[in-house]
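Human: Here is a favour to ask of a fellow structure person. Comparing notes only helps if you start from a blank page. I am asking you to supply a protein in sequence and C-alpha cell form. Write it directly below this note and I will take it from there.

Assistant:
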Amino acid sequence: MEESISGFKVRGDWGDIVEHGERITRALRDVDVHDPDQDDARFVRAFEEWDEWRPKAHETLESDVSEKTADQASVEEGKGEKAGKEPDEDIKTAGEKLSESYEQLEDDDAEAAVDNWKESIDYVARAADSASRKALRRVEDTVYQNVMTQLAPYYFDNELISANIQQAARNGGNGEQFVFEVNVNDDVLKENVSDRLAEYEDEVDRWHVEVEKDTDAAEAIEGAEPPPEPDDNSRSTTN
C-alpha cells in the first residue's frame, strides 16, 4: 500500500482491490465511525454509503461498481419525489385544485380561489421538476455506465470518503490489474485510519476476504434460519 496526501493506494488484482476496501472499512469501524450512539455520529450515513459502494469479491468493475457509481452520482430527489409522488399524481392534484378555484370564483370567494390557483401552479411545477429529474437520471445512467467509466475512473465521493478505481495495463501474465485509491476526508479520522492500517500490516498474517454467502439452499436443506451475520464480516489471522 502507498500512502500519500491524496490517500491510501494499492495496485493489484481484484482480490487486492477488495481487500484494500475491506481494510479501510474495518479501520473505520475500529474508530467507531459506524456507531450512531457515539458523541460525534455525523459520519454514520456516509459510512453506510461507502460500505455499500466499495467493491466486493463477488462483484465486477464493469457491471456492479459501474452501476453503483452511476447511482451515487445521480441527481438528488426533488420535493415531489421526496413526498413519494409521481408526476402524473401531481398533475391530477393540480387539476383538482384548479377546479376548486373555479367553483370558489362562482361562489364569490376570490381569496380561496386565488389560494387554490396558486397551489395548482405549485403542483404543476413540482410535476415538471420530478419528470425532468427522472429523465436526467436516465441519461446519467447511460452516460456514466457506458461512456464516462470508459474514460475516467470509477469513483465514489461523500463527506467521509473520496475513492476511485482505475483499470491498469496488464502486467505480463498476471491478468487484469487495477489501481484503487481511497482518501478519508477528515484529517483526524485519516490519521486514525492510517494508524489502524499500519497495525493490520504488522499483526495480520493473512486477510480473509469477505465473500457473499448463499444461505437460501442451506435453509431449504436444513430447515433452519442461518446464523446472524457479524458486524464485520472480514476475517483476519494474526501471527
Notes: Residues 110-151 form the longest helix (42 residues).
